[in-house]
Specification:
The complex is a heterotrimer of chains A (270), B (306) and C (520).
Chain A: H1 2-6, H2 8-31, H3 62-98, H4 100-115, H5 118-129, H6 133-160, H7 163-171, H8 175-212, H9 223-230, H10 239-269
Helix pairs in contact in A: 2-3, 2-10, 3-4, 3-6, 3-8, 3-10, 4-6, 5-6, 6-8, 8-9, 8-10, 9-10
Chain B: H1 2-29, H2 34-39, H3 45-55, H4 61-73, H5 87-122, H6 127-141, H7 144-158, H8 170-200, H9 203-210, H10 215-252, H11 258-267, H12 271-299
Chain C: H1 2-24, E1 34-39, H2 54-60, E2 68-70, E3 76-78, E4 81-88, E5 91-96, H3 110-121, E6 136-143, E7 146-151, H4 158-161, E8 188-194, E9 198-203, E10 216-221, H5 225-233, E11 239-241, H6 249-253, E12 258-273, H7 278-281, H8 283-292, H9 295-302, E13 307-309, H10 332-341, E14 355-360, H11 365-377, E15 381-386, H12 389-397, E16 403-408, H13 416-421, H14 440-451, H15 455-472, E17 475-488, E18 491-492, E19 509-510
Parallel strand pairs in C: 1-10, 14-15, 14-16
Antiparallel strand pairs in C: 2-3, 4-5, 5-7, 6-7, 8-9, 9-10, 11-17, 12-16, 12-17, 13-17, 18-19
Helix pairs in contact in C: 8-10, 14-15
The chains are: A mainly alpha (270), B mainly alpha (306), C alpha+beta (520).
Chain lengths: 270, 306, 520
């Protein structure tokens, strides 16, 4: 317990993420109102006692939709980041360890994908794959794995030259075992940071892809498609964008603090 | 050094080829074609077929691809279907505007991020740290398409400090650059803070402090350079995001750049123009990456140029 | 270490140089007497022989004249033609005005008219306008000021063909042209066309302009609706028509310098069925869908009074309008009864084994969700599929959809019924009857309507057509979209047309002449 006091990031971050998970799991019950109930007469209603976050353009309760959206946004972002991390980390790490021509070839491929404007990839994916959550996760992973690949590769390359690796080599230890022993803790920090940013970026990317037709099918609410739908009414009903916007901000804050806390934890034992 | 440079230049060619092929595949896989966009949805199917034939769209894909690559080899990017002008000319007209926007965005990002990241990293846990990171969170969590209009409402409509849209003098550049650079600033600031914290605990710092330097000065002279390594890596990774962000910012602020033209070209399925624009973006990205790798190697002498 | 500093410094200097270059650029001054009109997408063509989309038509209308135009009351009136004769059912003779000049000074004669039509009809022209001129046999110019149009059969909507914008003889096809636009004889000439950015029109020196009228019109492409509203509020934009979200109108109305004009329009919004789906061929299912949509609620709450509930394709402003067609009020009980009768029983949760896919563009997604909720109340499941614009139109054009909603803009002649409901106009032969509707009685009626010249007899035929369309429901009529214009009070004399035409921009004056321009 005293460890937590020394690591406020971990404590606060962990608390926020825990709250988010609770919202994702039990949100609909907490909110009481039906997020899908259209009531045209209450369209764009400002926040009130009956509707704490107001109503959207079709009269649906925004608070309920934010609660429901937590489930979707969190589920999608964590899946995507997790998948990107695995795919990218494996590719990048393996490439760095293999070195030489294999490394060059893989990095060439990474370069090509990275050089590609993400939005074209997104539009193409949206048009080819069509809507649906699984397709959204695939598309976002396809856009996101390269970041992790480069990061992990960079760290591995850097580590290879570190003194203790050379020292361990001189002592006769097998290079691969040494790398793995030292690699994971060294990589954990930057990867955790990248991953927490990834979640925020994914939620933002989800908004853009919702606009293009990829993602949650109507009428399912996600923070991304709520942000996008509210854009048109920015001048007259800012609560439509503020509510999911704040939700996104809090989520990112929570994950970032958690990431910091984890990095500090890893740094101490590493 | 020269050999390295030449080798990197030559490496551009397979990347260009790869991007061109990927673009071709994707844009042709996407349903819809330029003809419906051009002739309208009430055109008779016979006329649509005729137009497709005139544009050469009914040739087998392999033939179209071969023609495209052959054209590229000669430096011919073809003619835009929707503008009926050479693609190269259209790109030359609009690319400087995008460069201006991206450059300004990067400048804004760096100008905001370095002081913020330094304040945060030098005194972790302090009020300055919390404040700086609070701003960083805001910067990351507000997407461009939301931040742009927000800034427009606040600074153009309410305060009348800046013009609303379009490209002109410096005043026109401010809002778009800030919109574009804020998210990047937040990311850089965070990374800088992270690196500085790591450096504070390292041997370099201990050595500097033992020499009698104050913590701040030590951090500035030795810590910053080491932190720069991670920041430069990050910049390299994020530059793709900067270019993509530029596409969105151009749309919002009616900025006459390449990104805006690309988005319209995609919508119109203007294949030659899409391919030309994507290649331009991709090659710029790769060139900047090469520079980044260079800087990385300069800054961290432990990494040799391979 | 030194090298790293030098590198970083070099990059910083380069960035500053880029920004400094921005400082040096002069801001393009807007000429006094300019009106800026914000449009949501770019015109696709500046050659009136090729443009079919609404925005291109509205811009080109200001540059090019035609033999005939539709007046504010929906009647065909002579534009280039000062007198029209119809000696027999297949011949129309247009007597042209004298002294009409193109922007480059040449006089417009019958030769130019003949050339325009010939170039459209020529095989290989790739003009989409050709489909609408299928009935045209020939256009001849017996003398400089007479044009004779001959149709293959008696063709009542012939005057619609006469609405074609006229270009000078010898104008090359757009594919081979280097100019931004051919010269026209209308009130304005095209100064510049930057696709996806702006179109600038200046006065045609050879066309009389009322005193004090605006000298230049800048059509600026602004895709973001919030930015359009902001430009209006800041006085940068003088007029924006039919592209402002209804809910934002009160906010704009609060600005003293702005004025909102909300007048009846003829743009027709409808729900389309695909008759290749056997379930939709069942009239009971279609009627049930018609009864389950609460159009009045949508028009009042979602559209905030910027539309009128429609009974059919023709609005009351049309001479052929028939008010006797049956109208479908909101009656979910009747809908449920019809679906039961059709054999789709509801389960315990109220849902039936009836599921349709509804395709839409992102702009139409909100309406789609309303339909989804309304249909759910009677037990029909609607899967909404949002597609990007080009993909969507490609699908619709090929008849690849089950349900969707679209609109027809600028219906001038009831012959439109032929285009959309005649079985010969279905894909793959035609592209306007996308739902593959086929009804022999309708075919007979619309074909007769096309051949009957006498207006009274025609009116009777189309009365029957409208009643049949309402009974048989190839479309569910939704509403007629009003012409909603937000304009700066500086603009005097703007007259909104029911069909959305911007023609009155030719007469619009700027109340503060010359000097005091809105802040830029």
């Amino acid at each position: 317990m005293s460890g937590l006091a020394k690591n406020p990031s971990l404590a606060v971050g962990g608390a926020i993420v825990a709250i988010l998970i609770v919202a994702a799991l039990f949100g609909p019950e907490i909110a009481h109102r039906d997020p899908l109930a259209i009531d045209l007469a209450s369209a764009l209603a400002a926040p009130s006692l009956a509707h704490p976050f107001g109503c959207d353009a079709l009269g649906r309760d925004v608070f309920a939709r934010v609660m429901w959206g937590a489930r979707l946004s969190l589920g999608v972002s964590t899946s995507v980041v997790f998948l990107s991390l695995i795919v990218g980390g494996l590719i990048g790490g393996a490439s760095a360890l293999a070195g030489g021509r294999v490394d060059n070839l893989v990095m060439r491929a990474v370069d090509i994908v990275l050089a590609f404007p993400g939005i074209l990839l997104a539009i193409a994916m949206a048009a080819i794959l069509g809507p649906g959550l699984i397709d959204l996760v695939i598309a976002l992973t396809a856009m996101g794995w390269t970041g992790f690949a480069r990061l992990v590769r960079g760290e591995v390359l850097s580590l290879r030259e570190r003194e203790y690796v050379h020292a361990a080599n001189a002592l006769g230890a097998r290079p691969s075992r040494v790398l793995i022993r030292h690699l994971l803790p060294a990589v954990a920090g930057p990867v955790a940071v990248q991953a927490t940013f990834g979640i925020g970026g994914i939620i933002g990317a989800e908004a853009a892809l919702s606009f293009l037709g990829l993602g949650a099918l109507p009428p399912t609410p996600s923070w991304g498609n709520m942000l996008d739908a509210g854009r048109e009414f920015l001048l007259i009903a800012p609560h439509l964008t503020t509510a999911p916007g704040v939700a996104i901000g809090v989520a990112i804050l929570g994950f970032n603090l958690l990431g910091d806390g984890l990095a500090a934890l890893a740094g101490r034992s590493g | 050094m020269i050999r390295y440079l030449i080798r990197r230049m030559l490496a551009l060619i397979p990347v260009a080829l790869g991007v061109a092929t990927l673009t071709f595949a994707l844009i042709h896989l996407v349903p819809g074609d330029p003809v419906v966009a051009m002739l309208g949805d009430t055109a008779a199917p016979a006329d649509l077929a005729g137009m497709r034939h005139q544009l050469g769209l009914d040739r087998p894909l392999a033939v179209q691809y071969a023609t495209f690559i052959a054209g590229l080899a000669h430096g011919d990017l073809g003619e835009s279907i929707s503008y009926r002008q050479p693609v190269a000319r259209l790109i030359a007209e609009r690319f400087p505007a995008t460069l201006e926007l991206a450059g300004a965005g990067l400048l804004v990002a760096v100008l905001i991020a370095f002081p913020l990241g330094f304040i945060a990293g030098a005194n972790p846990g302090s009020a300055g740290d919390v404040g700086a990171m609070g701003f960083a969170i805001l910067g990351i969590s507000v997407p461009h398409i939301y931040l742009g209009p927000l800034l427009m409402i606040l600074f153009s409509l309410d305060l009348r400090w800046f013009p609303l849209t379009g490209r002109g003098g410096l005043a026109h550049l401010v809002l778009p650059a800030v919109t574009l650079g804020t998210a990047l600033a937040a990311i850089i600031a965070r990374m800088l803070r992270q690196s500085l914290i790591a450096v504070r605990a390292s041997d370099y710092m201990r050595t500097a402090l033992s020499k009698g330097l104050s913590p701040t000065a030590a951090l500035l002279r030795h810590g910053l350079r080491n932190a720069l390594t991670s920041v430069v890596t990050l910049l390299g990774l994020q530059l793709g995001g900067l270019l993509t962000g530029a596409l969105i910012v151009e749309m919002i602020f009616s900025w006459p750049g390449l990104g805006r033209m690309l988005i319209a070209a995609i919508s119109a399925r203007d294949y030659p123009l899409v391919e030309g624009c994507v290649l331009t973006f991709a090659l710029s990205y790769v060139v900047v990456n090469m520079t980044t790798d260079f800087v990385y190697a300069m800054v961290d002498p432990r990494v040799s140029l391979k | 270490m030194k090298r790293g500093r030098v590198r970083t410094g070099a990059i910083a200097i380069a960035l500053c140089a880029i920004v400094a270059s921005a400082c040096a650029r002069p801001v393009r001054e807007r000429a006094p007497g300019t009106i800026q009109v914000d449009i949501e997408s770019s015109p696709t063509s500046t050659d009136p022989r090729f443009a079919t989309d609404a925005i291109s038509s509205r811009v080109n209308e200001l540059v090019f004249d035609s033999l005939v135009k539709v007046s504010r009351d929906g009647e065909f009136a002579g534009d280039l033609a000062e007198r029209i004769e119809r000696p027999d059912p297949t011949t129309i003779i247009f007597h042209l005005k004298h002294g009409v000049r193109f922007g480059d000074g040449r006089e417009l004669t019958a030769r130019d008219v003949k050339f325009t039509y010939d170039s459209i009809l020529a095989p290989g022209s790739m003009s989409a306008k050709r489909a609408g001129m299928i009935e045209l046999a020939s256009v001849t110019a017996p003398d400089d000021y007479t044009v004779t149009m001959t149709t293959r059969h008696p063709y009542a909507p012939a005057l619609e063909i006469a609405m074609q914008g006229i270009v000078p003889a010898g104008t090359p096809l757009p594919a081979r042209s280097t100019a931004s636009a051919p010269p026209g004889s209308g009130p304005f000439a095209m100064l510049s066309y930057r696709r996806d950015e702006s179109v600038t029109l200046v006065r045609n020196p050879h066309h009389a302009a009322p005193p004090g009228a605006a000298r230049e019109i800048l059509f600026k492409v602004v895709p973001d609706p919030t930015v359009r509203a902001l430009e209006l509020a800041e006085g940068i934009c003088g007029l924006s028509e039919n592209n402002i979200e209804a809910a934002v109108l009160p906010w704009l109305a609060d600005h003293k310098a702005l004025e909102i004009s909300n007048t009846p329009g003829t743009t027709y919004k409808y729900l389309a069925f695909n008759f290749r789906d056997p379930r939709l061929r069942d009239l009971r299912v279609r009627r049930a869908i018609a009864y389950s949509i609460d159009r009045a609620a949508i028009v009042n709450s979602m559209l905030r009074g910027t539309a009128r509930v429609a009974t059919g394709m023709l609005a009351p402003e049309s001479w052929a309008y028939d008010g006797n067609a049956v109208s479908y009020g909101y009656d979910p009980a009747a809908a449920r009864r019809l679906l039961d009768e059709a054999g789709y029983r509801a389960d315990a949760g109220g849902m039936r084994n009836l599921r349709f896919e509804y395709k839409t563009t992102p702009e139409g997604a909100r309406l789609a969700e309303v339909f989804q909720a309304m249909l759910k109340r009677v037990g029909i499941t609607l899967d909404v599929r949002t597609l990007e614009w080009a993909t969507y139109y490609g699908d619709i054009q090929r008849g690849n959809f089950q349900l969707t909603s679209l609109q027809w803009v600028g219906i001038e002649d009831p012959n439109y019924y032929y285009m959309v409901f005649d079985s010969a106009m279905a894909p793959p032969h035609g592209s306007t009857n996308r739902g593959y509707y086929s009804n022999t009685e309708m075919d007979a009626l619309v074909e007769a309507g096309q051949r009957t010249i006498d207006p009274a007899a025609r009116k009777e035929i189309y009365a029957r057509v409208q009643q049949l369309a309402a009974d048989d429901l190839p479309y569910v009529s939704l509403w007629w979209v009003n012409t909603v214009a937000v304009l700066n009070r500086d603009l005097g004399g703007f007259d909104p047309y029911p069909n959305g035409s911007l023609r009155s921009l030719a007469q619009v004056t700027l109340v503060t002449p010359g000097g005091a321009e809105p802040a830029q």
